[in-house]
Amino acid sequence: MYKEEFDDLEKFEREDTKHKLPLGWLILFIGLIVFGIFYTYMYTPAFTGWSQSKVFEESMKK
Amino acid sequence: MSAIFWGVIGLVAGLWISAQMWDAALNLPPYFSFGRLRTFHTNVLVYGLGIGAEFGVFYYLVIRLTKRPLLFPKLARFHLWLFNIGVAIAGITLLLGWTQSLEYAEFEWPIDIAIVILWVIFAINIMGTIFKRKEQQMYISLWYIIATIITVAILYIVNNLSIPAGLDKSYHLFAGVNSANVQWWYGHNAVGFLFTTPILAMFYYFLPKSTGLPIYSHRLSIISFWSLIFAYLWTGAHHLVYTPLPDWIQTLGIAFTLFLIAPSWGSVVNGYFTVESDWSVMKNNYLTKFFIAGITFYGLQTIQGPSQGIRVISSLIHYTDWVPGHVHMGTMGWVTMVICASVYYIIPHIYKTTIYSEKLANAHFWIVLIGQLAFSITMWITGVQQGAMWKMTNPDGTLKYTFMEGLLRNYPYWQMRTLAGVVFVVGMLLFIYNVMMTIKKGKAELEAKVEPATATA
User: Fold this and answer.
1) Number of domains in chain B
2) Looking at chain B, which residue has its C-alpha nearest residue A30?
3) pLDDT of B325 strictly over 80
4) pLDDT tens-digit map of B420-441
5) Is residue B393 helix, strand or coil?
6) Distance separating alpha carbons of residues B76 and B125, to the nearest angstrom
7) What CA–CA distance (Å, rounded) separates B231 from B224?
8) Can you give the CATH number for the domain in which B351 is found?
9) Which residues of B touch A34 (CB under 8 A)?
10) What is the pTM of this model?
């Protein structure tokens, strides 16, 4: 008869590096959060006055 | 108990086969108009192949990771039939021209209701099994499965809220810019929660299973998971850059989109580091290269995708053929790679046998890879060319090229793309043949085992 196979979770996760976060990745992660805040600030009309229609009008002047 | 289990197994196999049938149905004869066939193509592949495989694989994974059989095996079987009938009917309605005109949500309201019922059946079964699990700790794949089930339900219901006007027609509840915003909140996340989270659930399970190498870092998988889920739902507005959608919504969408590189690459890095402990599996285990190629394309996709969201890049490539290039790298390079490898893994396990031919599987891999690369690269080239031609102006400010001139330059690339598509399909036919032969072999072996037993009895 067929027997159900179940999985042992221990085989899925490496013990020695279980809690490690690679440094390069961590820099990317935090860097992108910081950049996201900066970007949102810079390109929100209410904060800096930047707006798409303004950019468009300027490009038409040239 | 084992009988029930066999029932589920049969179901899982049935699902895949039906999914592959749908995939082959991709090459439909050209006597249907493009407008209808295009929606047919996307919907049948997303809902038939993509979700079909996900239903099957999720049932398989949940049983193994919760250490218990499905809560309602008969319901799962019913689900299978309903699903197959549903995809068939839904496909026909699209060809009949029933459409809500919302991308990836074209099905009209009667089909939508059927899909919601189908999804609820699936959700009850999977979630119930997870609640009654016999293993305390939840492996990362289960988290991705749960996210898929909950998010897709919310997205689908909200975007399909509409007022029926007859059986085959309805009007979106939202109007104008709101409609567009809800549609792309849905559209983008449908990709995220049908093509990213479920495939990651498979990746995190089958990579360690087939290589025997444990996942590098549990913490990295969990952090990537939660930040992916958190950020994804905000990003839809990047599809509406330079539209009447308020600037701040676009900016917020772009910021979250760029952030998504981090959680996506969390999974990429985790995959690479897992295999880094023993690269010889690349050579010795034929499935490893499917997963590594898949995660590589996922990595490329998740850099290309967010950069497309940036305003300056969007203005060049949006509305051009670059976009199908991008989409097909994801679907052909990442989604299909991982689904195929998962099926290659599961089928021999269900039938207690070995794969019919590893050589064929290797051939499948390389053919599919070439087809996909040729497809994406030709589309990128022609997309950039197209965008640049549209934007070029003469010194007096008039357009340098007419639309037709740009269009004519596309033709050689479109022909190359068809060729690439044919190559890809040949690869997929090898896959289907290999799976069918494996099932046949498994059944024959089983019979051979049963016969002596009954003879002695």
Assistant:
1) 2
2) B262
3) yes
4) 877 888 888 888 888 888 888 8
5) strand
6) 7
7) 10
8) 1.20.210.10
9) none
10) 0.88
